[in-house]
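The freezer alarm interrupted the setup, so I double-checked each line after restarting. Inputs confirmed:
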Amino acid sequence: MRLIINGEDLEVSKAETLQELLGELCVKPERVAVEVNLSIIKKSDYDSCRLKDGDRIEIVNFVGGGM
Amino acid sequence: MEDKLIIKGIEFKSRLWVGTGKYKDFEETKKAIEASGADVVTVAVRRVNIIDRKSENLFDYIDPKKYKILPNTAGCYNVEDALRYSRLAREAGISDMIKLEVIGDEKTLFPDVIGLLKATEILAKEGFLVFPYTNDDPIIAKKLVDAGAVAVMPLAAPIGSGLGIRNPYNIRIILETVKAPVIVDAGVGTASDVAVAMELGCDAVLLNTAIAGAKDPIAMAEAMKHAVIAGRLAYKAGRIPKKLYAAASSPIEGML
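Predicted 3D structure, all chains:
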């Protein structure tokens, strides 16, 4: 399955759900937020969120910044 | 008497709030923030590096259990982006607070107050604790509070400029007209600028570059900590009025 993750065109072999994708990318879900095709997915829905070819996914976290 | 800053039931241990950008590395960030005594730190929302997962995370150094995390919408130039970043920040699950920035112009980084007002109204209705970064304009400050902002954050001067409070009279008018905490945000350069903000009666000061860009950020962080305390004490103590002519402080009586 081909996904666009944080602007990168990536081929994902196993993951079928968002939960599995985060696992495959070694991203801990606790301190990130995720959008799939511009909709924010709640953490409790990661497991049930099924991904499909061409989905645009944004995974963000907090970085150093002031204003 | 205790003089704590409390906003919407949240008690703040320090009136100095600091950003976490522009430091040499995370170690320096950590040391400077510790030296500042701040308990609010601002952070930005950005993409996770999915290619290099070994890179360190800010929260390996800044413990979100120890500090209050205030995510910002830095870099957002329109209402839609500011809303998107705010909602993502809340979904990350650390804070309902948002330092709302809708920037109007790349060169000055002045706020687009029309967009800011719209975004404040929407986010306040969604239950966010909105801290809008705004101009030193008393009318807009009042409108932001009317729209649901829990505090207002007028700039002292442009972000990162170090010019200090350019319009103390407007800040005073904001303090008189707005029935919410006033936190000076952006533009202070050194400890005396911070003291001036606090002496005016501001509730807190938020800064980043003044510490991170100093030759010795950790020493400057400590200076800022004392400046906030000194300025607040002076405000509470009540300064003497300014006069044009001298008034001797030694008695005339008993002179030869």
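Quick read of the result. The interface with chain B takes residues 5-8, 10, 25-27, 30-35, 40, 42-43, 58-67 of chain A (CB under 8 Å).
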